[in-house]
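Section 3.1: Structural characterization of target chains.
Under the original work plan, the team committed to producing a structural model for every single-chain target entering the pipeline before any wet-lab resources were allocated. The record below documents one such target. The sequence was received from the expression subgroup and is listed exactly as submitted; it comprises 372 residues.
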Amino acid sequence: MSVKCQVIMDELDRIAPRYLAESWDNVGLLVGSPLQDVSNLMVALDVTGDVIKQAMATHTDMIIAHHPFIFKGIKNVRADLPHGRLLTELIKNDIAVYAAHTNLDIAVGGINDVLANRLHLADIEVLSSSHSDKLIKLVVFTPKSHAESVRRAISEAGAGYIGNYSHCTFATDGVGTFLPLADTNPFIGTAGVLEQVAEVRLETVLPEKISQRVLNAMFKAHPYEEVAYDLYPLVNDGPKIGLGRMGNLPTTKLLAVFANDVKKMLGINWVKVAGPSDKAVRKVAVCGGSGASLIQTAALAGADVLVTGDVKYHEAQDAVSAGIAIIDAGHFGTENVIVDHLGQYLDERACQGKWGVEIVTDKSSKDIFNRY
């Protein structure tokens, strides 16, 4: 069995919408076709030579990676050069590549939430809010016989999220009236005869940016030839969205102790620490990958320490001067947590949707840096 690549792309767009990506980023389907069949899927942090070899050996049809394999403009595809050689192998073996990068960093439940949870933080909130979604309300009228299928369809398309709750809807029973005119093919009733039907008024909220996707799902599930629905603008603030997370440890720890805990919880062999080893740490900011740009934001938010990667010498100096410690756990160490998490999520969705797709996660990749 298999599913079209588009089915998996739609699922990825639900958990990490492409519109969240930074303007300079390159996310989405980078190699392959939405119409190709996918029976074997691999989740990886990077698309490297080793990952492609593993994909070829396991007959993988699609790789989902965090880092975009194609980032800057391509001027040539030369098989005698490293990047061109890898791209040639992907195309020759009909392996699709999809990237979820800054959109997966920012998304609720994405890399930064996974990282914060891995470090056992509580009261987690967005560290640097870039925007909040504009919310709208959808109201649709459906016969009772199809209320559940319509509710399920719009919820699965992304409507009905309120905080940490999903599938939030409200239903009211009522009576709908309509008179099918000439050249109609009504699901219920007869042309020229006024009908009264027991219907359900179903309402929910959703981000305006996904309205078309939700409407498409609604139309597909709804039995009526002409669907009666309304969209209302709301003044409610949507959830804050942005980079980084901040939360609290269950108990205060010394910086040296917490740094050792970070190594264990992330499964890495080393960290770099800037700040006094006896500094008391309770409020922790995190940013997967390269998060030095959030040092001042974290310091002003009252964080005791920022856990991130790729921190430069002078950036660490500035952090300590601002009163915040740094634990540099590496770019790989702070982002690789997403691989198993995303693989498990997609495996659950595959079972629910009966995709017939085998999903594996890359186990071969390691941090490019070693410590001797």
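The chain is about 30% helix and 30% strand.
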